[in-house]
Amino acid sequence: MKTSNDCTNQNFLNYVKSISPKTKQRRSLIRAFWVGGVICMIGQTFRYLLEFGLGLSGDELSSYVSMIMIFLGALLTGLGVYDRIGKYAGGGSIVPITGFANSVVSPAMEFKTEGYIYGTAAKMFIVAGPIIVFGIASSVLVGILYFIGLRIF
Questions:
Q1: 106 pLDDT tier (thresholds 50, 70, 90)
Q2: How many structural domains is the chain composed of?
């Protein structure tokens, strides 16, 4: 037996469905795939240039490529380009490491009118802060487990 609350909820859901814009999932997926792929190809290009051009390898190579990609993501966000890429590509722009740089720089740009300390510095990690804290806490925990594991064996 339906209650009046169930009917109200169903009426509301029908109303929301009728006024919501229809998404074009296939087009969105294709855009996300190719833009994310291009971002990854750019990173791979830098990897090849540093590996074969400067002779870098291992962790040093990975670190330099990550720094370059984060810098490019932050620079493009500051110039307003990365937001346009994000509107076009959706999830394809936030999955690579440049999306992390975007999530750090975007709030800082938004609150820069409040000053460098209370605006830019305080709001910079509003989105990426929990990710950074989780990453550091997880790495400490894994390090402790690794350390204990070495002592046991």
A1: confident
A2: 1
